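Recall that a protein's primary structure is simply its ordered list of amino acids. Everything else, from secondary elements to tertiary packing, is in principle encoded there. The following example makes that idea concrete.
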Amino acid sequence: MEDCLFCKIIQGELPADKVYEDEHILAFNDIYPKARVHVLVVPKLHLASLAELTIVHKGMIGDLMLQLPHIAKSQGLDNGFRTVFNTGAGGGQEIFHLHAHILGG
């Protein structure tokens, strides 16, 4: 998606403070943190939100979910963290590329 901020970050067109990357996902620090640790975890495949997931995305979303605790731990969140998915404008989503927020500290 050419106008998507997160797609531009994934493609290296915009900078980001990356904390994790593999072939399917990218995690980076939020530029407007709501907690001491605020990491965004995005799939490299563009999907607007959780509402667009289908059975075809089962592996991708499973991989993303399994990485969340590892990413949180790598950021020092050993005592727990919060994970948030905002879905759609009514759910508070501002960037329309599926992403999870890891918050803690």
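DSSP finds two helices and five strands in the chain. The helical segments are 5-10, 58-74.
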